[in-house]
Amino acid sequence: xxxxxxxxxxxxxxxxxxxxxxxxxxxxxxxxxxxxxxxxxxxxxxxxxxxxxxxxxxxxxxxxxxxxxxxxxxxxxxxxxxxxxxxxxxxxxxxxxxxxxxxxxxxxxxxxxxxxxxxxxxxxxxxxxxxx
Amino acid sequence: xxxxxxxxxxxxxxxxxxxxxxxxxxxxxxxxxxxxxxxxxxxxxxxxxxxxxxxxxxxxxxxxxxxxxxxxxxxxxxxxxxxxxxxxx
Lengths: 132, 89
What we know:
heterodimer, A: 132 residues, mainly alpha, B: 89 residues, Helix Hairpins, 3 helices, 0% strand, ion transport (chain B), K+/H+ antiporter subunit F (chain B), MrpF/PhaF-like (chain B), cell membrane (chain B)
C-alpha cells in the first residue's frame, strides 16, 4: 500500500512538472510555432500521468475502479493534435512572412491552408475570390 | 504523502497558470492568446484532477470532462473564425 502511495505521489508530481514546463514554454519561447510545442506536451504527458495517478488511487487505495479518467484521456489525446493543427493553419494564413518560407509540397496542389484541395477545385471557388 | 504531493502540484499549476496569463495579456498576436486560453483550460483540468485526488472524491471528473469538451470547441471555433471568417458555414 505504501508503494502504491509513493507511485501515485510521483505520478502527480510528474504531471504537475509537465504542466509547469508547458506553460513555461508558452511564456518563454520566441514565436508561435515554437510556443505551440509546449502546451501539447502538457496535454499529453501532464494530464496523462495525473489521470493515471487518479485511476491508480481510486482503484488500489479506495477499491472502486472508475472509467471516467480513461474517457478524459481519450478525449484529450484525440483533440490535442486537432487543436494544434488548427492553430498552425490559422497562423500560416495570418502571417505573410510564414508563407514565403514554406517548402514546396511536391504535388500539383499546394498547402491545404492556402489552396483548395484537388476535389474541391471544380466545385468551390478558390479562397482568394470568395474572400471579398 | 498524497496530500503533500497534491499541495506541491497545486502550487506548480498555480505558477503555470500565472505564466499562461502573462502570455494571454502580452501575446503579440491573436493566435498567441487563443493558444494561451487553450493552455489555461488544460491547466484547469489538471487542477480539477488534483483537487479530486486531494478531497478523495470522484465527483469532479465530470467537470474535468466538460472543461475538456468546452475548451476544445472554443479553440476550434476561434481558429475556424480566423481561417474562414465564419464559425459555421
